[in-house]
Automatic annotation (TrEMBL):
Polar residues bias locations: 25-34
Stretches with biased composition (Basic and acidic residues): 1-24
Protein name per UniProt: Uncharacterized protein
Annotated segments matching region Disordered: 1-41
Length: 125
């Protein structure tokens, strides 16, 4: 059976319409998935509580420092002249040659005060 030209054209037109409809449907579903992804990304990130981790790190670092360093340290905050006297007392009481005595760190604070840390070995061997 031979179809008329009008019938043949109608079938092609229907196929084209179906093809456009399918591509529109797939575009909408793709757009919906993009929207879903964008919504999930836009939600604020809630960080987990880190108190336990911070506490564990501090404890571990303190333990490692205690194991690897046998120096005795004392920190003082004194006026400049008193700080010099205190440092001299340490060097007189714990000689540098025997105790490895040193001023480990220092800084000048407002009001002409000095914060400093003295370091020495616990015993002279």
């Amino acid at each position: 059976m031979v179809k008329s030209r009008k019938e043949a054209g109608g079938g092609e037109e229907r196929q084209a319409t179906d093809s456009i409809r399918k591509s529109t449907d797939s575009t909408l579903s793709s757009q919906e998935s993009v929207n879903r992804v964008a919504e999930s990304v836009a939600q604020p990130f809630v960080s987990p509580p880190l108190d336990g981790l911070a506490r564990q790190l501090r404890r571990n670092r303190a333990r490692l420092a205690a194991e690897t360093d046998s120096f005795v340290r004392e920190t003082f905050v004194l006026p400049r002249d008193a700080a010099r006297v205190k440092a001299r007392e340490w060097f007189d009481r714990y000689p540098k040659a025997a105790y490895w005595t040193s001023v480990e760190s220092w800084r000048v604070l407002p009001g002409d005060e000095v914060e400093f840390t003295m370091r020495r070995l616990p015993t002279a061997d």
